[in-house]
Backbone:
């Protein structure tokens, strides 16, 4: 959700452009309010929603939050792929 700065006291700040990592689309949205910077990373695979990561910090910049979310999202995808490989090997 992006808040319209013309009607609210907070302003949106975009993180890195949507990216693709190991077959998963990662969409990051970061917002800054007067009290906190918060963001979310939505993960999609084959056009289906697969998960969301959210973080916030009163001290972080929007760039810091976006970077941390990107790192966490890639780590989550790495875990998914590892589990998938393990399941295929077990069958």
Residues:
């Amino acid at each position: 959700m992006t808040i319209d700065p013309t009607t609210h006291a907070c302003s949106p700040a975009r993180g890195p452009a949507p990216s693709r990592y190991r077959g998963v689309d990662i969409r990051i949205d970061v917002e800054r309010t007067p009290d906190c910077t918060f963001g979310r990373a939505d993960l999609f695979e084959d056009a289906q929603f697969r998960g969301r990561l959210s973080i916030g910090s009163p001290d972080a910049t929007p760039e810091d939050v976006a970077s941390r979310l990107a790192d966490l999202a890639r780590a989550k995808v790495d875990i998914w792929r590892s589990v998938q490989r393990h399941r295929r090997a077990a069958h």
